Fold:
Amino acid sequence: AYRRALVKPWNLDPHRLASAQKDLAAVLLYGGIETALPPQLQVWGQLTPKNNLEEAILLLFILITKAAHKEIEWDPDIMDHLSFALSMCGGFDFLAHHVEQVLPGIYNRAERWYILALCYSAVGQNAIALDLVRKIAGHSESKHKPHIPSLLLGAKLCVNDVKLATEGINYSHEITELAANDNKPFVAQAHKFLGVCYSNVAQFSISNSERGMYRKGSLQSLNAAASIDNEDPELNLDTGFDYAKMYCNMMSGSSVRGWKLLALIASDIIDIALDEATSTDQLKL
Structure:
């Protein structure tokens, strides 16, 4: 019905037309039924949308362009629908492009940079994502309320690079100091990232005392995270792994029991990774 209404030569005003296009996009995205375009509407050859998702994205691109040219008023639902649609097909680079097109004032700078950082992180461009997080946490935004989600993203990005462990510690500390009791999920994740970053720093510490201090901090942070969210299997494995490493170090690496414990935890980590892998990935392994 929406398709028939949109192709009829009615002289709809821009806002009513945009409303119909947005409603059709929502039905295509969330309706749960795949409905191909009828032959009479397949007029773009190979460029014709092949499924509901492609048709919805095309409609939302049209609406975003209209909003950018001020032909219609900005509607946040359009970006919400587009974000969902592009996340379904991995089109985060396209989403970043359209976020950059959004008129100034729709999002404040921190929100815009945060959304862009998420997009770049999703496509593996972590360096660009981290630079955007640094902007949010930088001096230019110091007068504004701290943006906790971006700090959490920064901590997460630093976890996988040992060279960035100290920066990750700073982000995590800031979250634990700023987040209130009603932000327990943020606090739990911050403690988790803090524990991993401490562990990363400990690996490259020169003195035994410094290494011991960071490992102790790692265990304290992981325990704090586990006390808030004790249903995170990855967190429990991180804690157990750190305890096992500390035990081996205390025994100067000569404890068979400690090495067996490390091997057992490593085996559990591999099992979890295999469970999360697709069947194709498992065949490759």
